Amino acid sequence: MVLRQTLLAASGSDRLRTLVAGTRVTRGVVDRFVAGERAEDAVRAAGELAEYDLLSSIDHLGEDADHPARTEDVTKGYLRLLRLLDDSGLTSWAEVSVKPTAMGLGLGEEGETLAVENLGRICAAAAEVGTTVTVDMEAARNVPATLRVVARLRARYPWVGCVLQSYLHRTEGDTAAVAAEPGARVRLCKGAYAAERGSAYTDRREVDAAFVRSLRRLMTSRAYPMVATHDSRLIDIATTLARRYGRTYDDFEYQMLYGARPTEQRRLASLGARVRVYVPYGTDWYGYLVRRVAERPANAAFAARQVLTR
Ligand code: FDA
Q1: 21 and 124: one domain?
Q2: Which one of 142, 146, 220, 293 has the lowest number of neighbouring Cβ atoms within 10 Å?
Q3: Is 191 annotated as a binding residue?
Q4: Residue 230 C-alpha to ligand 1 middle, in angstroms?
Q5: Domain match, 280 and 290 both
Q6: How far is the centre of ligand 1, averaged over its atoms, from the C-alpha of 158 (Å)?
Q7: Which CATH number belongs to the domain containing residue 76 in this structure?
Q8: Phi and psi (nearest 5°) for 27?
Q9: Residues 226 and 188 placed together within one structural domain of the fold
Q10: Are 257 and 277 in contact (CB under 8 A)?
Q11: What angle is formed at CA 189 by the lines to CA 185 and CA 191, rounded to 5 degrees?
């Protein structure tokens, strides 16, 4: 837990970012968890996943935009990505995931309005090509504003997905609220960010127990649960709950990250389950990768072995 907190604190350090960026081990971790630098790389990865009946949700890496001009660049990147997906005939396989702080959330008082505008443009483009958008959840301080943004988008695009993090104390209340919306697409995960003291469970068993409580609430509701975990125990519980509450494989989905448990992703898909892989691409991978190593230090060790034994 201490290592996790230290690593998550490091995710904001520019000095460390420069220091690690050039190493071979870092390159190994990037290659494993990131589809590539360009939108074309992500589209190629989505096509390869589709060959195994795996759906995807593509994320243009980058967060905490420090200027409206930067949010415009990222928005245009998503619009281009959606066009590429359409050209490749992949829109029934791939959707997009978007970080609200890359859209403007956090840029002062106007930031929330800017995020709704930018995300609205991405949603309109997604609707045009026949796919969907999920709004990622970031640090705890952004949760209320992100839920407001999602609610405003859903008034126009009811298929917009949101994310809930079981490590936050507030999440069971949020789950009850979103579960009341028929068809609401809700990705449930444990949570990957450093949380303010007192706002989150710190014991893994408590995080897991809270995950199961929210999962049960979603499975018994009319929402569409998206179960985002690599944890075999939670995957089994999701399968059992879905069966118990009469859900077929079309009524919920499993989600995992690109590069994490690919064999398990394919195994679930081969059973007929809907499995969606979160596919990040871009050059701004530092924060994303630090979170992967924080949640599982073995991810760095694995990549280091791959590089050093090459
Ligand atoms: P955890 O990290 O607790 O691991 C449990 C067990 O799973 C491990 O002991 C191991 O057995 C197995 N395992 C985990 N990773 C493995 C690997 N790479 N290889 C093999 N086994 C592995 N977070 C957030 O805050 N906001 C968000 O918007 C999202 N979005 C998101 C989308 C998707 C599709 C996923 C899968 C995850 C997220 N997350 C997220 C990240 C999430 O909150 C969480 O940090 C990670 O999924 C890690 O937690 P796990 O539930 O996988 O279990």
Answers
A1: no
A2: 220
A3: yes
A4: 5
A5: no
A6: 26
A7: 3.20.20.220
A8: -55, -40
A9: yes
A10: yes
A11: 130
pTM, to two decimals: 0.92
* Closest CA relative to residue 171, chosen from 128, 206, 134, 205: 206
Judge if 297 and 280 occupy the same domain. Answer: no
Containing structural domain, residue 3: 1-34+285-310
Count the domains in the chain.
Answer: 2
Of the candidates 26, 18, 96, 5, the one whose C-alpha atom is nearest the C-alpha of residue 55 is 96
Structure tokens at 115: 């995020």
d(CA 187, CA 165): 9
Residues 290 and 279 in one domain: no
Considering only CA atoms, which residue is closest to atom 45 of ligand 1? 192
Looking at the structure, tell me whether residues 294 and 271 fall in a common domain: no
Residue 58 gets which letter from DSSP? E
Query: pLDDT of 144-160, one tens digit each?
Result: 999 999 999 999 999 99
- Reported ipTM: 0.97
Half-sphere exposure (CA, 13 Å, Cβ side) for 283? 4
Which has more pLDDT, 6 or 242?
A: 242
pLDDT tens string 89-145 = 999 999 999 999 999 999 988 999 999 999 999 999 999 999 999 999 999 999 999
CB 278 less than 6 A from any atom of ligand 1: yes
Q: Are residues 1 and 67 in the same domain?
A: no
Q: Which helix (H) or strand (E) holds 268?
A: helix 262-270
Q: In the numeric block, which tokens belong to residue 278?
A: 């979160």
Report the distance separating Cα 111 and Cα 108, nearest Å. Answer: 5
